[in-house]
Specification:
About 25% of the residues lie in helices and about 20% in strands. By secondary structure, the chain is α/β, with parallel strands linked by helices. The protein is globular and about 60 Å long. Bound molecules: alpha-D-glucopyranuronic acid (GCU).
Protein backbone atom coordinates (compact mmCIF):
# COMPACT_ATOMS: atom_id res chain seq x y z
CA UNK A 1 0.00 0.00 0.00
CA UNK A 2 1.26 3.50 -0.75
CA UNK A 3 1.47 4.84 2.80
CA UNK A 4 2.23 1.35 3.77
CA UNK A 5 4.88 0.02 6.06
CA UNK A 6 7.68 -2.24 5.00
CA UNK A 7 6.72 -5.87 5.56
CA UNK A 8 7.66 -7.07 9.00
CA UNK A 9 9.08 -10.44 9.77
CA UNK A 10 7.25 -12.43 12.39
CA UNK A 11 9.86 -13.62 14.87
CA UNK A 12 10.07 -17.33 15.52
CA UNK A 13 7.52 -18.29 18.15
CA UNK A 14 8.96 -19.85 21.26
CA UNK A 15 7.01 -23.09 21.43
CA UNK A 16 8.94 -24.52 24.37
CA UNK A 17 7.74 -22.53 27.38
CA UNK A 18 4.88 -24.42 29.01
CA UNK A 19 1.43 -22.90 29.21
CA UNK A 20 -0.80 -22.91 32.26
CA UNK A 21 -3.78 -25.25 31.95
CA UNK A 22 -6.97 -23.25 31.34
CA UNK A 23 -8.61 -24.43 34.55
CA UNK A 24 -5.65 -23.13 36.59
CA UNK A 25 -5.61 -19.66 35.12
CA UNK A 26 -6.50 -16.90 37.58
CA UNK A 27 -9.49 -14.66 36.94
CA UNK A 28 -8.78 -11.23 35.42
CA UNK A 29 -12.06 -9.37 35.44
CA UNK A 30 -10.62 -6.40 33.51
CA UNK A 31 -9.00 -6.79 30.11
CA UNK A 32 -5.56 -8.44 30.12
CA UNK A 33 -2.83 -5.86 29.61
CA UNK A 34 -1.81 -5.45 26.01
CA UNK A 35 1.47 -3.71 26.65
CA UNK A 36 2.84 -5.68 29.59
CA UNK A 37 5.11 -8.64 28.96
CA UNK A 38 4.62 -11.88 30.85
CA UNK A 39 7.77 -10.90 32.80
CA UNK A 40 5.90 -7.83 34.03
CA UNK A 41 7.98 -5.40 31.98
CA UNK A 42 6.24 -2.60 30.14
CA UNK A 43 6.34 -2.50 26.34
CA UNK A 44 7.51 0.95 25.31
CA UNK A 45 8.92 0.79 21.83
CA UNK A 46 8.16 -0.67 18.43
CA UNK A 47 11.06 -3.01 19.03
CA UNK A 48 9.71 -4.27 22.38
CA UNK A 49 6.48 -4.96 20.59
CA UNK A 50 7.91 -6.68 17.54
CA UNK A 51 10.55 -8.72 19.29
CA UNK A 52 8.93 -9.58 22.58
CA UNK A 53 5.26 -8.81 23.08
CA UNK A 54 3.92 -9.60 19.64
CA UNK A 55 5.40 -13.12 19.57
CA UNK A 56 4.03 -13.75 23.07
CA UNK A 57 0.56 -12.67 22.03
CA UNK A 58 0.69 -14.61 18.76
CA UNK A 59 1.59 -17.73 20.66
CA UNK A 60 -0.99 -17.20 23.41
CA UNK A 61 -3.81 -16.68 20.90
CA UNK A 62 -2.88 -19.77 18.94
CA UNK A 63 -2.46 -21.88 22.05
CA UNK A 64 -5.74 -21.02 23.76
CA UNK A 65 -8.01 -20.01 20.89
CA UNK A 66 -7.16 -20.78 17.27
CA UNK A 67 -4.53 -23.52 17.30
CA UNK A 68 -1.25 -23.74 15.47
CA UNK A 69 -0.99 -24.08 11.71
CA UNK A 70 1.52 -26.02 9.67
CA UNK A 71 4.41 -24.32 7.95
CA UNK A 72 3.55 -23.07 4.48
CA UNK A 73 4.35 -25.57 1.75
CA UNK A 74 7.50 -24.79 -0.22
CA UNK A 75 5.36 -24.66 -3.32
CA UNK A 76 1.65 -24.89 -4.11
CA UNK A 77 0.84 -26.50 -7.46
CA UNK A 78 -1.64 -24.45 -9.47
CA UNK A 79 -3.78 -25.39 -12.46
CA UNK A 80 -5.31 -22.55 -14.43
CA UNK A 81 -8.85 -23.73 -15.20
CA UNK A 82 -9.93 -20.69 -17.16
CA UNK A 83 -8.68 -17.22 -17.99
CA UNK A 84 -10.46 -14.74 -20.23
CA UNK A 85 -12.15 -11.37 -20.47
CA UNK A 86 -15.59 -11.05 -18.97
CA UNK A 87 -18.44 -10.49 -21.39
CA UNK A 88 -18.53 -6.71 -20.83
CA UNK A 89 -14.77 -6.51 -21.44
CA UNK A 90 -14.15 -4.71 -18.16
CA UNK A 91 -12.30 -7.41 -16.26
CA UNK A 92 -10.15 -10.47 -16.59
CA UNK A 93 -11.66 -13.53 -14.98
CA UNK A 94 -9.20 -16.12 -13.82
CA UNK A 95 -10.13 -19.41 -12.22
CA UNK A 96 -7.26 -21.33 -10.77
CA UNK A 97 -7.14 -24.55 -8.78
CA UNK A 98 -4.52 -24.60 -6.02
CA UNK A 99 -3.61 -28.09 -4.87
CA UNK A 100 -3.09 -28.07 -1.11
CA UNK A 101 -2.70 -31.77 -0.58
CA UNK A 102 -3.70 -35.03 -2.18
CA UNK A 103 -7.33 -34.58 -3.23
CA UNK A 104 -7.69 -31.22 -1.45
CA UNK A 105 -7.71 -28.12 -3.56
CA UNK A 106 -8.93 -24.54 -3.53
CA UNK A 107 -10.70 -23.00 -6.51
CA UNK A 108 -9.77 -19.35 -6.57
CA UNK A 109 -11.88 -16.94 -8.62
CA UNK A 110 -10.10 -13.68 -9.48
CA UNK A 111 -11.52 -10.66 -11.33
CA UNK A 112 -8.96 -8.00 -12.23
CA UNK A 113 -9.84 -4.66 -13.82
CA UNK A 114 -8.77 -4.19 -17.44
CA UNK A 115 -6.42 -1.22 -17.92
CA UNK A 116 -5.11 -1.14 -14.36
CA UNK A 117 -1.51 -2.11 -13.99
CA UNK A 118 -0.94 -4.26 -10.94
CA UNK A 119 -4.24 -3.64 -9.20
CA UNK A 120 -4.74 -3.73 -5.43
CA UNK A 121 -6.92 -6.67 -4.48
CA UNK A 122 -9.58 -7.67 -1.97
CA UNK A 123 -9.34 -11.32 -1.00
CA UNK A 124 -12.10 -13.01 0.99
CA UNK A 125 -13.78 -16.33 1.67
CA UNK A 126 -17.34 -17.01 0.60
CA UNK A 127 -20.02 -19.21 2.20
CA UNK A 128 -21.79 -20.89 -0.72
CA UNK A 129 -19.23 -21.48 -3.46
CA UNK A 130 -17.71 -19.06 -5.98
CA UNK A 131 -20.61 -19.57 -8.38
CA UNK A 132 -23.04 -18.16 -5.80
CA UNK A 133 -21.14 -14.86 -5.54
CA UNK A 134 -21.98 -13.83 -9.13
CA UNK A 135 -24.45 -14.27 -12.00
CA UNK A 136 -21.48 -14.81 -14.32
CA UNK A 137 -22.40 -18.18 -15.91
CA UNK A 138 -18.77 -18.99 -16.63
CA UNK A 139 -17.88 -19.40 -12.98
CA UNK A 140 -17.24 -23.06 -12.21
CA UNK A 141 -19.49 -24.86 -9.78
CA UNK A 142 -17.70 -25.73 -6.58
CA UNK A 143 -16.74 -29.40 -6.31
CA UNK A 144 -16.61 -29.41 -2.50
CA UNK A 145 -19.35 -30.45 -0.14
CA UNK A 146 -22.06 -27.77 0.22
CA UNK A 147 -24.62 -28.12 3.04
CA UNK A 148 -28.31 -27.91 2.22
CA UNK A 149 -28.56 -24.77 4.38
CA UNK A 150 -26.44 -23.06 1.71
CA UNK A 151 -28.33 -24.48 -1.24
CA UNK A 152 -26.38 -27.73 -1.68
CA UNK A 153 -28.36 -30.66 -3.14
CA UNK A 154 -27.18 -34.01 -1.81
CA UNK A 155 -24.13 -32.14 -0.59
CA UNK A 156 -23.32 -30.84 -4.05
CA UNK A 157 -23.17 -27.39 -5.60
CA UNK A 158 -25.70 -26.81 -8.38
CA UNK A 159 -26.90 -24.25 -10.92
CA UNK A 160 -29.83 -23.16 -8.74
CA UNK A 161 -27.28 -21.63 -6.36
CA UNK A 162 -25.78 -19.37 -9.02
CA UNK A 163 -25.88 -15.72 -8.04
CA UNK A 164 -27.73 -16.45 -4.79
CA UNK A 165 -25.14 -14.40 -2.86
CA UNK A 166 -24.30 -11.93 -5.63
CA UNK A 167 -25.83 -9.08 -3.63
CA UNK A 168 -22.98 -9.51 -1.13
CA UNK A 169 -20.18 -9.34 -3.71
CA UNK A 170 -20.10 -5.98 -5.45
CA UNK A 171 -17.53 -6.97 -8.07
CA UNK A 172 -18.81 -4.26 -10.40
CA UNK A 173 -18.09 -1.44 -7.99
CA UNK A 174 -14.67 -2.82 -7.06
CA UNK A 175 -13.64 -3.32 -10.69
CA UNK A 176 -14.88 0.14 -11.72
CA UNK A 177 -12.80 1.63 -8.92
CA UNK A 178 -9.65 -0.17 -9.98
CA UNK A 179 -9.68 -3.03 -7.49
CA UNK A 180 -9.28 -6.70 -8.18
CA UNK A 181 -11.39 -9.12 -6.15
CA UNK A 182 -10.47 -12.70 -5.39
CA UNK A 183 -12.60 -15.22 -3.56
CA UNK A 184 -12.72 -18.88 -2.63
CA UNK A 185 -15.26 -21.12 -0.95
CA UNK A 186 -14.24 -21.82 2.64
CA UNK A 187 -15.54 -25.40 2.28
CA UNK A 188 -12.72 -26.07 -0.21
CA UNK A 189 -10.27 -25.79 2.67
CA UNK A 190 -12.23 -27.31 5.50
CA UNK A 191 -15.91 -28.18 5.76
CA UNK A 192 -17.88 -26.13 8.22
CA UNK A 193 -18.78 -29.11 10.43
CA UNK A 194 -17.61 -31.05 13.47
CA UNK A 195 -16.46 -33.90 11.26
CA UNK A 196 -13.18 -33.22 9.56
CA UNK A 197 -13.29 -36.02 6.99
CA UNK A 198 -13.12 -33.87 3.90
CA UNK A 199 -10.93 -30.99 4.93
CA UNK A 200 -7.34 -30.05 5.30
CA UNK A 201 -7.53 -30.99 9.00
CA UNK A 202 -8.92 -34.43 8.33
CA UNK A 203 -7.52 -37.85 7.57
CA UNK A 204 -7.48 -37.24 3.84
CA UNK A 205 -4.73 -34.68 4.39
CA UNK A 206 -1.85 -37.05 3.92
CA UNK A 207 1.23 -34.90 4.25
CA UNK A 208 2.96 -35.17 7.55
CA UNK A 209 2.99 -31.41 7.94
CA UNK A 210 -0.80 -31.49 8.10
CA UNK A 211 -1.24 -34.08 10.81
CA UNK A 212 -3.20 -32.58 13.72
CA UNK A 213 -1.60 -32.48 17.18
CA UNK A 214 -2.40 -30.93 20.55
CA UNK A 215 -3.41 -27.31 20.06
CA UNK A 216 -3.42 -27.78 16.34
CA UNK A 217 -5.73 -25.69 14.27
CA UNK A 218 -9.45 -25.34 14.54
CA UNK A 219 -11.41 -24.54 11.41
CA UNK A 220 -10.87 -20.76 11.64
CA UNK A 221 -7.09 -21.19 11.61
CA UNK A 222 -7.33 -23.73 8.80
CA UNK A 223 -9.41 -21.33 6.71
CA UNK A 224 -6.92 -18.55 7.47
CA UNK A 225 -4.10 -20.84 6.34
CA UNK A 226 -6.00 -21.44 3.11
CA UNK A 227 -6.28 -17.68 2.57
CA UNK A 228 -2.51 -17.51 2.86
CA UNK A 229 -2.19 -20.16 0.15
CA UNK A 230 -4.46 -18.03 -2.05
CA UNK A 231 -2.17 -15.08 -1.29
CA UNK A 232 0.85 -17.19 -2.33
CA UNK A 233 -0.80 -17.35 -5.71
CA UNK A 234 -1.92 -13.69 -5.89
CA UNK A 235 1.57 -12.37 -5.20
CA UNK A 236 2.70 -14.20 -8.35
CA UNK A 237 -0.16 -12.82 -10.46
CA UNK A 238 1.26 -10.10 -12.75
CA UNK A 239 -2.08 -8.23 -12.88
CA UNK A 240 -2.14 -7.85 -9.09
CA UNK A 241 0.08 -5.96 -6.71
CA UNK A 242 0.90 -8.57 -4.09
CA UNK A 243 1.91 -5.85 -1.64
CA UNK A 244 -1.61 -4.44 -1.69
CA UNK A 245 -3.85 -7.38 -0.91
CA UNK A 246 -6.51 -6.61 1.70
CA UNK A 247 -8.10 -9.62 3.37
CA UNK A 248 -11.75 -9.19 4.29
CA UNK A 249 -14.67 -11.30 5.41
CA UNK A 250 -18.16 -11.31 6.84
CA UNK A 251 -19.17 -13.04 10.06
CA UNK A 252 -17.27 -16.36 10.45
CA UNK A 253 -15.29 -15.33 7.39
CA UNK A 254 -14.62 -12.01 9.15
CA UNK A 255 -13.21 -13.85 12.15
CA UNK A 256 -11.05 -15.74 9.69
CA UNK A 257 -9.89 -12.55 7.95
CA UNK A 258 -8.63 -11.27 11.31
CA UNK A 259 -6.78 -14.52 12.01
CA UNK A 260 -5.29 -14.52 8.50
CA UNK A 261 -4.12 -10.91 8.85
CA UNK A 262 -2.77 -11.55 12.34
CA UNK A 263 -0.64 -14.55 11.33
CA UNK A 264 0.36 -13.58 7.79
CA UNK A 265 1.98 -10.19 7.62
CA UNK A 266 1.97 -10.16 3.85
CA UNK A 267 -1.66 -9.04 4.03
CA UNK A 268 -1.47 -5.28 3.59
CA UNK A 269 -4.74 -4.58 5.37
CA UNK A 270 -7.63 -6.33 7.10
CA UNK A 271 -11.39 -5.71 7.15
CA UNK A 272 -13.76 -7.66 9.39
CA UNK A 273 -17.49 -7.30 8.90
CA UNK A 274 -19.80 -8.28 11.77
CA UNK A 275 -17.27 -10.84 12.97
CA UNK A 276 -18.46 -10.94 16.59
CA UNK A 277 -17.49 -13.60 19.12
CA UNK A 278 -14.11 -15.20 18.42
CA UNK A 279 -13.51 -12.32 15.98
CA UNK A 280 -13.39 -8.61 16.78
CA UNK A 281 -15.78 -8.67 19.78
CA UNK A 282 -14.35 -8.89 23.29
CA UNK A 283 -15.23 -12.14 25.06
CA UNK A 284 -15.38 -10.81 28.62
CA UNK A 285 -18.54 -8.71 28.41
CA UNK A 286 -20.38 -11.90 27.31
CA UNK A 287 -22.95 -9.88 25.39
CA UNK A 288 -24.64 -11.33 22.31
CA UNK A 289 -22.97 -14.61 21.40
CA UNK A 290 -20.92 -15.86 24.35
CA UNK A 291 -17.93 -18.19 24.52
CA UNK A 292 -20.24 -20.82 26.02
CA UNK A 293 -22.64 -20.64 23.07
CA UNK A 294 -19.99 -20.57 20.38
CA UNK A 295 -17.97 -23.50 21.70
CA UNK A 296 -21.07 -25.59 22.31
CA UNK A 297 -22.39 -25.13 18.78
CA UNK A 298 -19.28 -24.30 16.76
CA UNK A 299 -16.43 -25.54 18.95
CA UNK A 300 -14.57 -27.05 15.98
CA UNK A 301 -13.63 -23.52 14.94
CA UNK A 302 -11.27 -23.35 17.93
CA UNK A 303 -8.82 -25.39 20.02
CA UNK A 304 -10.27 -27.56 22.76
CA UNK A 305 -8.62 -25.26 25.31
CA UNK A 306 -10.99 -22.52 24.28
CA UNK A 307 -13.93 -24.73 25.28
CA UNK A 308 -12.74 -24.55 28.90
CA UNK A 309 -13.55 -20.85 29.01
CA UNK A 310 -17.30 -21.36 28.53
CA UNK A 311 -18.93 -19.24 31.24
CA UNK A 312 -15.40 -18.50 32.55
CA UNK A 313 -14.42 -15.65 30.23
CA UNK A 314 -12.72 -13.75 33.03
CA UNK A 315 -10.14 -16.57 33.24
CA UNK A 316 -8.98 -16.04 29.68
CA UNK A 317 -5.35 -14.86 29.74
CA UNK A 318 -6.21 -12.82 26.65
CA UNK A 319 -9.11 -11.13 24.96
CA UNK A 320 -9.88 -10.31 21.36
CA UNK A 321 -8.03 -6.96 21.43
CA UNK A 322 -4.89 -9.16 21.36
CA UNK A 323 -5.95 -10.60 18.02
CA UNK A 324 -6.57 -7.13 16.56
CA UNK A 325 -3.25 -5.82 17.87
CA UNK A 326 -1.37 -8.56 16.00
CA UNK A 327 -2.35 -6.69 12.83
CA UNK A 328 -0.55 -3.48 13.92
CA UNK A 329 0.90 -1.40 12.35
CA UNK A 330 -0.97 -2.44 9.21
CA UNK A 331 -4.39 -0.94 8.44
CA UNK A 332 -7.38 -2.59 10.16
CA UNK A 333 -11.06 -1.71 9.75
CA UNK A 334 -13.65 -3.31 12.03
CA UNK A 335 -17.27 -2.97 10.85
CA UNK A 336 -20.44 -3.60 12.83
CA UNK A 337 -24.18 -3.19 12.22
CA UNK A 338 -26.25 -1.69 15.00
CA UNK A 339 -29.03 -4.29 14.88
CA UNK A 340 -26.55 -7.17 14.89
CA UNK A 341 -26.58 -7.64 18.65
CA UNK A 342 -25.36 -11.24 18.28
CA UNK A 343 -21.98 -9.86 17.11
CA UNK A 344 -21.96 -7.25 19.92
CA UNK A 345 -21.11 -3.95 18.15
CA UNK A 346 -20.08 -2.34 21.45
CA UNK A 347 -17.68 -5.22 22.19
CA UNK A 348 -16.18 -4.81 18.72
CA UNK A 349 -15.69 -1.10 19.29
CA UNK A 350 -14.15 -1.68 22.72
CA UNK A 351 -11.72 -4.23 21.29
CA UNK A 352 -10.47 -1.72 18.71
CA UNK A 353 -10.13 0.89 21.43
CA UNK A 354 -8.14 -1.54 23.61
CA UNK A 355 -5.93 -2.60 20.68
CA UNK A 356 -5.17 0.94 19.44
CA UNK A 357 -2.12 1.39 21.77
CA UNK A 358 -0.28 -1.18 19.64
CA UNK A 359 -0.53 1.18 16.64
CA UNK A 360 0.41 4.14 18.86
CA UNK A 361 3.79 2.45 19.48
CA UNK A 362 4.43 3.06 15.77
CA UNK A 363 3.36 6.70 16.03
CA UNK A 364 -0.06 5.95 14.51
CA UNK A 365 -2.52 7.39 16.97
CA UNK A 366 -5.51 8.77 15.13
CA UNK A 367 -8.01 6.42 16.77
CA UNK A 368 -9.46 8.88 19.24
CA UNK A 369 -11.85 6.99 21.43
CA UNK A 370 -14.75 9.23 22.32
CA UNK A 371 -17.34 6.63 23.25
CA UNK A 372 -19.40 4.41 21.00
CA UNK A 373 -20.02 6.35 17.77
CA UNK A 374 -23.21 7.36 15.98
CA UNK A 375 -24.20 5.01 13.17
CA UNK A 376 -22.50 6.06 9.94
CA UNK A 377 -19.44 7.59 11.66
CA UNK A 378 -16.00 6.21 10.87
CA UNK A 379 -13.76 6.39 13.93
CA UNK A 380 -10.01 6.60 13.20
CA UNK A 381 -8.13 5.56 10.08
CA UNK A 382 -5.65 2.99 11.38
CA UNK A 383 -7.15 1.19 13.13
CA UNK A 384 -10.69 2.22 12.21
CA UNK A 385 -14.14 1.30 13.47
CA UNK A 386 -17.49 1.78 11.74
CA UNK A 387 -21.04 0.93 12.71
CA UNK A 388 -23.88 1.24 10.25
CA UNK A 389 -27.64 1.03 10.40
CA UNK A 390 -29.23 -2.34 9.77
CA UNK A 391 -28.40 -5.93 10.49
CA UNK A 392 -26.07 -8.82 9.86
CA UNK A 393 -25.23 -8.94 6.14
CA UNK A 394 -23.09 -7.39 3.44
CA UNK A 395 -24.57 -4.63 1.29
CA UNK A 396 -23.13 -2.53 -1.56
CA UNK A 397 -22.64 0.41 0.79
CA UNK A 398 -20.25 -1.78 2.79
CA UNK A 399 -18.11 -2.24 -0.32
CA UNK A 400 -18.20 1.54 -0.87
CA UNK A 401 -16.92 2.08 2.67
CA UNK A 402 -14.24 -0.62 2.37
CA UNK A 403 -12.95 0.75 -0.94
CA UNK A 404 -13.02 4.39 0.30
CA UNK A 405 -11.10 3.33 3.37
CA UNK A 406 -8.59 1.09 1.58
CA UNK A 407 -8.03 3.70 -1.17
CA UNK A 408 -6.34 5.86 1.47
CA UNK A 409 -3.51 3.35 1.68
CA UNK A 410 -3.59 1.51 -1.58
CA UNK A 411 -3.87 4.29 -4.18
C1 LIG B 1 -23.52 -17.91 13.68
C2 LIG B 1 -22.39 -17.90 14.68
C3 LIG B 1 -21.55 -16.63 14.56
C4 LIG B 1 -21.10 -16.43 13.14
C5 LIG B 1 -22.30 -16.46 12.21
C6 LIG B 1 -21.97 -16.40 10.72
O1 LIG B 1 -24.45 -16.94 14.00
O2 LIG B 1 -22.96 -18.02 15.96
O3 LIG B 1 -20.41 -16.70 15.40
O4 LIG B 1 -20.39 -15.23 13.02
O5 LIG B 1 -22.99 -17.67 12.40
O6 LIG B 1 -20.88 -16.76 10.33
O7 LIG B 1 -22.87 -16.05 9.96
Amino acid sequence: MAACHAPLTLPELDRETPFVAPMDLPATPGLPELLTLSTGERVQTERDWLEARRPEIARTMEHYVYGTAPEPPSETRATVMEERLTEDGKAWREQVRLHLDEGISIDLLVYTPVGVERAPCFLGLNFWGNHATTHDPMVLLSESWVPSSRGGQDGKANDAQRGKRADRWDYEQAISRGWAVATLYHGDIDPDTWTTDDGIRGPRAKSERLVPGPHSWGTLRAWAWGLSRALDHLVENPRIDGDRVVVHGHSRNGKTALVAGAYDERFAGVISNHSGCGGAALSRPARGETVERIVRVLGYWFTEDFWSFADREEHLPLDQHFLLALIAPRPLLVCSAIEDEWADPLGEYQAVEAAAPAWALFGIDDFKAAGFPETGDLVGTVPAYHVREGGHSVVSEDWTLWIDWADQFAR
